[in-house]
Amino acid sequence: MLNFTLTALALAAPPVVASTAAAQQLVNWETAHVSPIAFDAAGQRLFVCNTPDARLEVFDVSGSVPVRLFDVPVGLDPISVRQRGANEVWVVNSISDSISVVDLIQRSVVATVDTADEPADVIFAGSPERAFVSCSQANLVQVFDPAATAAPLAQVPILGEEPRAMAKSADGSTVYVAVFESGNGSTVLGGGLDGSSTLVLPNVVSNPSGPYGGQNPPPNSGTNFVPAMRPGNPPPPRVGLIVKKNAAGQWMDDNGGDWTNFVSGPQAAQSGRVVGWDVTDHDVAVIDAATLGVSYADRLMNLNMALAVHPVSGDITVVGTDSTNEVRFEPNLNGVFLRVVMGIVDESTLGVAVLDTNPHLTYQTSTVPQATRDLSLGDPRGIAWTSDGARGYVTGMGSNNVAVFNAAGSRIGTPIEVGEGPTGIAIDDAGGRAFVVNKFDASVSTIDLAAAAEVSRVAFHDPSPLAIKVGRKHLYDTHATSGLGHVSCASCHVDARTDRLGWDLGDPAGLVEDSGAQNLGMNLPGLNVGFEDFHPMKGPMTTQTFQDIIGKEPFHWRGDRDGLAGFLPAFEGLQGDDATPSVAEVDEFAAFLGTIHFPPNPYRNFDNTLPTDLPLPGHFSVGRFSPAGTPLPNGNAQNGLNRYTPPTTLDGPFACVTCHTLPTGMGADVRFNGSQYVPFPEGPNGEKHHALVSVDGSTNKAIKTAQLRSSYKKVGADFTQSSVQAGFGFLHDGSIPSLAFFLSSPAFEFQGDQGLANMIAFMLAFGGSDLPNGSASNPLFPPGTESQDTHAGVGTQVTIADFATLDPAAAALVAGMRSEADLSRIGMVARGVVGGLPRGAAYSAGASFQTDRAAEQLDFAALMALATPATPITLMAVPSGTEVRLGIDRDLDGAFDRDELDGGSDPANGNSVPDLGQNYCGPAVVNSAGASAVMSASGSRVALDNDLTLRASLLPPGSWGFFVTSRTQGFVQGPGGSRGNLCISADVARFSLQVQNSGSARAISTRINLTLVPTNPPQSVLAGQSWNFQAWYRDSFQGQPTSNFTDGLTIDFE
């Protein structure tokens, strides 16, 4: 009867739920820097990626302190910059899937190079010169002719997950690529499935022929458990087991158990694998720039974050982190679960050596004094060597410092403190200094290499909201959040994502926790039974992403943490810190995490619709319908969606969407009351209660229904192939190697490989929203929670030199941009040089663009008419709601960018505006040019900004003048025989050393120093003070020389 009722109710057509990324001024994807800084020794310029502002910042570094020259708008989330020639740089845009080619003379983008998904870095190498581009999500390197970038010359597959940072040999013949998620030779053995027909995977851990005779879970210290099991606890569930390959090629657990026969040996089938199965563990790809042949350096670390070539030895030096995830139980891992390392690869033999970058740590204790912690290097993201190879410098994004190394790779001296979140570093050998970009506080630090000290720090514009700036440290700061100073939450939740590993963070001595307060099966008959409490020995669990988790409670795979506060014990119990964060700090952390969005889904079409003919390379049959290892056909994701939702019921009486709601894939935050779904009451801190299930086939009989938006990020662990790139796959413990394996389980009623391929295509394209939502009245299709996704078209760029001759594919893309923008599904901006000036525009519905001058609007045809081969226009799709900031009002102060520049104010400072202050004492006496001269000011009313430019206009041509000021207004008619009126009094200060001539513009302008106003004695302008300004100038009356004054201007400083 239930089945009949559910099926009948499933026929109602549901609405579509869209992404919640719309209508925000900044969307945070928390994209990682790769090579975000470059130094031009010849031109004494510094190039820096301003990631949140989507710009390249250019500094003059010919003096002792970097001075900002200009900026150039590029693509979304620029993360790497490389110079090519004297006046050209290439900027790699991660979200835009592009490279912006910047002409430094024109100060504009002159070409856009389209790349594969998530480009990370670019290097110029080979003869003839080629541009090698690492594409991290696509797992390949694209090769371009820099002079003809319409399409790549070649694509070089990389056998590793997320190839990112790049370098080249001294002669340019070899390109090196660091594989970010290389893995560390660990994998999981199945043991955590209950043996039901839901999922079928051999339970090899319980196999009597295994090292422990089938005991599951096996002991971790001889025949014992350390810590010992708590008396009175029920028996733990059977679980999986993490093993790691040693230097001899043996797969060992943390107790010395040898599982090699079951992983790669003759009994590999007992774990579902093929004989000879292996995880490649490639850390550095070595590409011959001429032949494009690839070899690899292996077994360095888990996360290869940055690399550089030693200028003398030619060795490749890599910095990153490695994890001891094979060690079981949280008490044994507390504070010591990770090492920050440097790998050294011999350029000739590719032999490797690995050094600990924190030799002052013994890892025998989880906590050391703060002074010792402050010596630690955490989350390394940049490395650079001096030209003589004597010193190497490594940035610690988590430790806010730069560590110094000798030529052999050993730490020397004391770390150099810099700004927050240092990533890229560039060496100026001739100047004896280094420049470091600090990602989190948007600044550039200058380091005196001889003194080993920071000597200046210059900020650049960061449009990030306070929630990001204040809360980010709780994720990354290793000195503030760990006992040894080298780890943080981001050590595993890397860049708010994952380390692609599994961990067994159970505690045999822990308590069993009640699961009854959670949303158990939405109270839906058939799903609301079979639950058990949370046992402390939970077995391996893969690291979960932090993207869009706030409002998606409960947390953890089991849903055993009600909210973010539930993680507080981990700061002491796992990271070794002295104390847990305060309530206020938890709120800051939550506010920051709440800003993080999923990026555009690379498998969706430009208009965010589902693909209907998606190739599925790397996806193979597991033997249910065709022989195991058979490549699957192209998939139709729309057909997959149709099978996912009612009236189809692929899993017995239930549809896929009954548990995995749209658009997130999580369980619903509702419960069934017998006739309809009703909201589940929020927790005391506003926590949601998304549903748990007990019927997923796991021995953990309370598992939160998993979100599916990052499914495409988990591919790479396949048991049908002998060589794979990842040791962990799907399900809570990573034991399900592939989507094909999961969907081929008996629980799912597919009829053949095509149906399987269609569902895999939908799983890959799942993230992105714009999917049908359920309803409270349909038990098979409950309503889902909105998702912080991004429209698939966001970031797309087209650089147009002549719209009339635009190729058909680009023209169709532009038409698609306009269509989506008209529906407010995306925003659109235009950037280029017009009349010799950098200009911007933001698209408004109806084919109209608002330019960066408030009084100027252009229709689409007029804008396109401005594009020429010498001055192209670049169109870019941006998240809806961000087009004003990215196109015409950078600091969102209401004064458009070109208006600000025309008026002398700074468009990158919200306190700086073109019309500052209030005029009084006017109109002024008419001068010899027949006009009343007028005072104006631009800049910031914030005194500490010291940003004020005074301007006097409508003066006679060629007239000399200067400015005066006083705290007091007044009125003196014709002082000293002047024609004009003095509008200030008492302690008048004269800026007489800054005399200007009005010239043909009939205006004078002076930037004044607010810290040294020339009163008697000199004084500084302070917040809360009002100052009055006026200009005195030479004039004539009836042919006789005289003087005159402008009107007055009063400014209230803050």
Write a concise keyword list for the protein shown above:
mainly beta, Immunoglobulin-like, seven-stranded antiparallel beta sheet, six-stranded antiparallel beta sheet, 17 helices, disordered N terminus
Helix content: 10-25%
What are the low-pLDDT stretches, counting only 5+ consecutive residues below 50?
A: 1-23
Task: State mean pLDDT (0 to 100 scale).
Answer: 95
In terms of DSSP E residues, the strand content is 25-35%
* CATH class descriptor name of the domain at 915-1052: Mainly Beta
The number of strands is: 60
Q: What characteristic shape results from the CA principal axes?
A: globular
Query: Kindly, what is the distance between the CA atoms of the first and last residues, rounded to a whole number of angstroms?
Result: 72 Å
Oligomeric form: single chain
Query: If you consult CATH, what is the topology of the domain at 915-1052?
Result: Immunoglobulin-like
User: Structural class, from secondary structure content?
Assistant: mainly beta
So how many helices? Answer: 17
Please identify, by name, the CATH architecture of the domain at 915-1052.
Sandwich
Walkthrough of the structure:
The chain is mostly beta strands. It contains 17 helices and 60 strands. Among the domains are: 797-903, no CATH class; 915-1052, Immunoglobulin-like. Helix content is 11%, strand content 30%. The longest helix has 15 residues, at 808-822. Residues 1-23 have low confidence and may be disordered.
